[in-house]
């Protein structure tokens, strides 16, 4: 049963924020699945890359070391967006999938959960899917999330 | 009885963005002759579920940790009794979170503070404005697979020294930040050595060592630094009084030798750094195990030992260093 199918648009002003999507599971199920994707992942825009690299390098590198980083522009292949998914059940943090692929599928179950998430029996109650917006470098990012509950009777 | 053990203190598996499994990480660390490894996946503890007594028996003890991978910096949290949420940390409120971790008996370490941040590595640069340094226990001053030659480690090391000079008490660590088994077996790997009670390697003893400052970092030999004063010996992280004291030091080249002796690493001298300045340098004779003692007049602040020598053809390189012993005004 699909509990949620939502596309959210994020913009540079959402950078370094968490977007919380609450949802409720009305009865226990055997598995909760989370299909996530976002686009664009890679931003191939040379002008934007030049601006991002040159305007930021001085924030991180002491002035005396700047000559060591002269080729930084060449070392950065492309700009990327990075958004991750973390999950909570009631007051319990269930984990996070801190990985870089823009298309990921995760699940929670009592026996095993996807890497990054604790084993969790999907009991009825209040959940939160939290999109952690680590970095947005494109003018817009579309994040698509589908949450599906698999109930006991559907496993037969 | 405190005994120092060698650790990798920063590692990742496929529970975050590493390619190691927990088991393959442990196997790789065993090959490196480590005594323990801290599992510090980004923003998750799910890898802990794979740590079993059988795995630890066959490989090595695993220290429960997590790397807070926030938008404003990365922070290693070791051995906290409960989870503290990383998601709401901002540069201005970080003290509230480090206080909560510290109250949960966790050890808090700043990871690779001078790594480049976004767009190079999102959130990797330390941008938190810490006001309560008492809740931060250490700084990872050597980071990455080639820490001796990574330019971003130099300002990180200086940051640690500056904080000590401001009167804060902080240990220092190193970490490969190991994500995949891509290091050749003959790749040099410096280690963090923790002073654990009775040689017991566990999450509890590791976090207590970090919180107490019983930490040193070495690219090669085992180090020893203590201060004797009024007939009593004081180790790393301890506090002594200003005035007359005896500095006791040791360099043991028989420790984990196969892991570093093929890299042209030759210890030449130990130096004592007080309040940021080198106040004493003692040439080593080249014996496998050397120790010595020197009478010295301490003034208030802090003092640490640094080991220098040849490394990959370069002379007088920093090969290791201890966390400080603190000196209080008598």
Blueprint of the fold:
The complex is a heterodimer of chains A (156) and B (330).
Chain A: E1 2-10, E2 17-25, E3 31-39, E4 42-43, H1 46-60, H2 72-75, E5 79-80, E6 82-89, E7 92-97, E8 103-108, E9 125-135, E10 141-150
Antiparallel strand pairs in A: 1-10, 2-9, 3-8, 3-10, 4-5, 6-7, 6-9
Chain B: E1 2-8, H1 22-31, E2 36-39, H2 53-58, E3 62-69, E4 74-78, H3 94-103, E5 107-110, E6 138-143, H4 153-165, E7 171-175, E8 191-197, H5 203-212, E9 215-218, E10 222-229, E11 232-234, E12 239-241, E13 243-252, E14 266-274, E15 277-283, E16 289-298, E17 301-311, E18 314-322, E19 325-328
Parallel strand pairs in B: 1-2, 2-3, 5-6, 6-7, 12-19
Antiparallel strand pairs in B: 1-8, 3-4, 4-5, 8-9, 9-18, 10-11, 10-13, 13-16, 14-15, 14-17, 17-18, 17-19
Describe the structure in your own words.
The complex is a heterodimer of chains A (156) and B (330). In chain A, the strands form three sheets. A four-stranded antiparallel sheet of chain A has the order 1-10-3-8, with no helix packed on it. A four-stranded antiparallel sheet of chain A has the order 2-9-6-7, with no helix packed on it. Chain A has a two-stranded antiparallel sheet with strand order 4-5. Chain A is mostly beta strands and 156 residues long. Chain A has two helices and ten strands. Chain A folds into two domains: 2-41 and 81-154, Sandwich (Jelly Rolls), CATH 2.60.120; 46-75, no CATH class. Chain B has 330 residues and is mainly beta. Chain B has two domains: 2-218, TIM Barrel (Alpha-Beta Barrel), CATH 3.20.20; 222-328, Sandwich (Immunoglobulin-like), CATH 2.60.40. Chain B is 15% helix and 38% strand. Chain B has five helices and 19 strands. Chain B has helices spanning 22-31, 53-58, 94-103, 153-165, 203-212; strands at residues 2-8, 36-39, 62-69, 74-78, 107-110, 138-143, 171-175, 191-197, 215-218, 222-229, 232-234, 239-241, 243-252, 266-274, 277-283, 289-298, 301-311, 314-322, 325-328. Chain B has a 15-stranded mixed sheet that branches. In chain B, a hairpin with a 2-residue loop joins β17 and β18. The longest helix of chain B has 13 residues, at 153-165. The radius of gyration of chain B is 19 Å and the shape is globular. In chain B, 52% of the residues are buried. The A-B interface holds A 15-16, 18, 49, 52-53, 56-57, 59-62, 65, 68-69, 72, 76, 79-80, 82, 84, 86, 93, 95-100, 113, 115-119, 130, 132, 134-135, 137 and B 13-17, 41-47, 49, 69, 71-72, 83, 85, 87-88, 114-120, 122-123, 125, 151-152, 154-155.
């Amino acid at each position: 049963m699909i509990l949620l199918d939502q596309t959210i648009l994020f913009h540079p002003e959402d950078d370094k924020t968490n977007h919380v999507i609450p949802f409720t599971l009305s009865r226990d199920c055997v598995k909760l699945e989370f299909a996530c994707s976002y686009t664009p992942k890679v931003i191939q825009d040379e002008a934007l890359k030049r601006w991002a690299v040159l305007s930021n390098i001085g924030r991180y590198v002491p002035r005396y070391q700047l000559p060591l980083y002269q080729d930084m522009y060449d070392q950065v292949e492309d700009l990327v967006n990075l958004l991750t998914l973390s999950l909570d059940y009631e007051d319990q943090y269930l984990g996070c999938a801190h990985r870089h692929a823009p298309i990921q599928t995760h699940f929670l179950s009592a026996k095993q959960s996807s890497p990054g998430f604790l084993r969790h029996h999907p009991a009825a109650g209040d959940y939160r899917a939290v999109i952690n917006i680590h970095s947005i470098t494109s003018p817009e990012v579309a994040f698509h999330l589908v949450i599906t509950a698999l109930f006991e009777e559907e496993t037969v | 009885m405190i005994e120092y053990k060698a650790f990798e203190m920063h590692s990742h598996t496929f529970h975050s963005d590493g390619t190691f499994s927990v088991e393959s990480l442990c196997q790789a660390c065993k090959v490196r002759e480590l005594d323990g490894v801290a599992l510090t996946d980004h923003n998750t503890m799910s890898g802990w579920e794979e740590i079993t007594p059988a795995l630890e028996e066959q490989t090595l003890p695993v220290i429960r940790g997590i790397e807070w991978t926030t938008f404003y910096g990365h922070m290693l949290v070791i051995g906290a009794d409960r989870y503290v949420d990383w998601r709401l940390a901002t540069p201005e409120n970080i003290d509230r979170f480090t206080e909560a971790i510290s109250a949960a008996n966790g050890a808090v370490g700043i990871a690779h503070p001078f790594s480049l941040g976004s767009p190079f590595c999102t959130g990797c640069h330390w941008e938190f404005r810490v006001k309560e340094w008492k809740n931060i226990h250490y700084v990872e001053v050597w980071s990455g697979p080639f820490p001796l030659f990574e330019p971003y480690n130099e300002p990180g090391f200086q940051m640690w020294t500056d904080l000590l000079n401001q009167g804060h008490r902080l240990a220092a660590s190193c970490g490969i930040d190991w994500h995949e088994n891509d290091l050749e077996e003959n790749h040099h790997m410096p280690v963090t050595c923790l002073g654990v009670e009775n040689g017991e390697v566990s999450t509890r003893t590791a976090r207590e060592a970090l919180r107490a400052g019983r930490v040193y970092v070495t690219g090669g030999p085992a180090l020893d630094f203590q201060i004797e004063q009024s007939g009593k010996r004081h180790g790393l992280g301890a506090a002594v009084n200003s005035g007359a004291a005896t500095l006791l030091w040791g360099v043991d080249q028989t420790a984990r030798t196969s892991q570093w002796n093929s890299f042209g690493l030759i210890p030449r001298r130990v130096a004592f750094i007080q309040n940021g300045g080198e106040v004493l340098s003692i040439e080593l004779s080249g014996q496998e195990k050397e120790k010595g003692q020197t009478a010295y007049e301490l003034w208030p602040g802090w003092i640490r030992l640094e080991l220098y020598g040849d490394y990959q053809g370069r002379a007088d390189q920093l090969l290791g260093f201890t966390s400080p012993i603190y000196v209080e005004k008598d």
